[in-house]
Each structure stands twice: as C-alpha cells, then as structure tokens.
C-alpha cells in the first residue's frame, strides 16, 4: 500500500455554476482559490450526465450519456494536479423522479442544474496521477519529501 499524510487546509462551501460542466465548475473554483489538492462532495441536481463503469478485460471505461435531470444522491471525488493542470475525478449516484438510481464514475459532459459543493483542501506535496500498466487506470503516485 502506498500513501502519504496530509493536513487539512481551508474548507470551502459554494454553489456551482448552473449550466456549466460539473468538472469545469469545480476546477474553476480550485483555480480561483489556488487549491491544488482536495477532496469534495456535491449535492444537487444535474440536467444531463455522463457516467461510466470500468471494463477490466478491455481496460477501458464504458460510458453512457443521458439528457435528463437527475437528483444527486451522492457525489464524492478529489482534485489533483496532472501535467501541471488542475483536474478532478468523482463517482456519483443519481436518482430519477421514481426513485430508481444509477451511478458510476462521473465524466464530462455533466451539466449542473443546481449544486452545492463542500471542498476540503489537503495541505502537503500534491500527489501525481500516472498510468498503471497492471490495471490500465490512472492512480495516485505520492511524492516523498
């Protein structure tokens, strides 16, 4: 197991921008607040979404996009740097008006109808995201002082 320890930094609460892609809104918030590493949760409603699940045999995400509103039951993720660019990743669970749920890894284009964010900054050397040959996925690689 590989890990490193972080100290909690600032706690930001905010409203994400209606009509914007959820990741674009989160990364814009982080850029404005000069945050490079964080964890977050989001609640609210999306007007459209793209989610996926990982196919371990083909080592790719299989995605599906829907242009219908859904309630965000749970959405959690993290913010990190990759190639000197702030990025975010998340998983989400969504419900329709009948209570049926769907979920998976969140992808762009996922448009915000209304959403609040709870973002916790992590203080320490930012982890790097790099390709893992064994799984075909992008994982954290921690820098040691």
What is the strand and helix layout of this fold?
Blueprint: E1 7-15, H1 22-33, E2 38-55, E3 60-66, E4 70-82, E5 85-95, E6 101-123, E7 128-131, E8 138-141
Describe the protein's architecture and organization.
The chain has 145 residues and is mostly beta strands. It is built from 1 helix and 8 strands. The chain has one helix at residues 22-33, and strands at residues 7-15, 38-55, 60-66, 70-82, 85-95, 101-123, 128-131, 138-141. The longest helix is centred in the first third of the chain and has 12 residues, at 22-33. The radius of gyration is 16 Å and the shape is globular. The two termini are 18 Å apart.
Helix content: under 10%
From the helix content, strand content and strand pairing, which structural class follows?
Answer: mainly beta
Distance between the termini: 18 Å
Work out the radius of gyration.
16 Å
What is the mean predicted local confidence, pLDDT?
93
Low-confidence spans: pLDDT under 50, at least 5 residues?
Answer: none
Biggest sheet details: 6 strands, antiparallel
Our estimate of the beta-strand percent is: over 45%
Shape: globular
Number of strands: 8
H/E series, N to C?
Answer: EHEEEEEEE
- Total of DSSP H or I helical runs spanning 4+ residues: 1
């Amino acid at each position: 197991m590989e890990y490193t320890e972080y100290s909690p930094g600032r706690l930001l609460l905010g409203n994400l921008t209606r009509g914007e892609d959820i990741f674009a809104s989160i990364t814009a918030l982080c850029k404005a607040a000069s945050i490079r590493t964080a964890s977050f949760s989001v609640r609210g409603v999306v007007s459209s979404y793209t989610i996926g699940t990982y196919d371990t045999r083909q080592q790719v995400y299989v995605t599906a996009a829907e242009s219908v509103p859904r309630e965000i039951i749970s959405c959690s993720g993290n913010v990190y740097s990759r190639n000197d660019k702030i990025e975010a990743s998340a998983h989400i669970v969504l419900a329709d008006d009948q209570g049926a749920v769907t979920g998976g890894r969140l992808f762009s284009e996922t448009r915000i109808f209304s959403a609040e964010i709870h973002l916790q900054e992590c203080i320490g050397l930012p982890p790097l995201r790099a390709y893992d040959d064994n799984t075909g996925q992008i994982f954290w690689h921690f820098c040691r002082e």
